[in-house]
Amino acid sequence: MKDDYANTLLKSINETVTEAVWSQTDLFSTLYRGEQASVVDATAALFINTYEPTTHMVGELTFSKGCPGDQEGDSYLNGSQAQPNQALIREKGDFLVHCKYSFYSFGQDYMEEIAHIVALAQEMGLAPQSAHYVTFLTGTAQQLFAYFEAALSYAHEHLPHYVLEATISVNSPSLGGTAHV
User: Fold this and answer.
1) Which letter does DSSP use for residue 180 in this model?
2) pLDDT at 108 (0 to 100)
3) How would you classify the pairing of strands 134-140 and 30-33?
4) Rounded to an integer, what distance in angstroms lies between the CA atom of residue 40 and that of residue 63?
């Protein structure tokens, strides 16, 4: 949320190590495709690389598995689960984030699966609060992306098709100066 956002985003994209994922940036977004742990790693690094302590920033994320027809980048689905950005995430991911997310399980008893995913957030210290169609989380960026990795690992093992959509916000002026850790 600043005048020079394009340069900030491009710098962040270039600083994120993407050797373990297929990557494409277009007019609307950056897409990472590959093993679940590798995708979360690259997504976390991109978000953390974009963070500035005094700038309001919002990220929109979609994680999914099971959508038929998407074959581009299949060579990255090799079982490696590489996470080349972990040192950066640990070093720079200790800033407060607020998140709202929705988890959708397709073709299953979805309410039980959603409840499990929300309970996992509680176990990981992210203080989930429910609202219509979303769950709110608050914690550090490092905690949030560790949660996404854990939730997606559970979903990957138990569900054939799911989508997790999240909006992450930092330094929102709506918080009245309470956005920093």
Assistant:
1) -
2) 65
3) unpaired
4) 9
The answer to whether position 180 is within a domain reads: no
**Domain, as residue range, for 104:** 4-175
Decide if 23 is inside a domain: yes
- CA distances (Å), origin 37, targets 21, 64, 139, 156, 172: 10, 13, 20, 11, 28
- What is the Cα 174 distance to its own chain's centre? 22
Query: Residue 181 domain-assigned?
Result: no
The confidence band for 110, taking pLDDT boundaries of 50, 70 and 90, is confident
Question: pLDDT digit string (tens) for 18-34?
Answer: 999 999 999 899 999 99
Reply yes or no on whether the pLDDT at 38 is more than 90: yes
Contacts for 122 with CB less than 8 Å, ≥ 6 apart: 128
Q: What is the count of structural domains for the chain?
A: 1
pTM of the model: 0.90
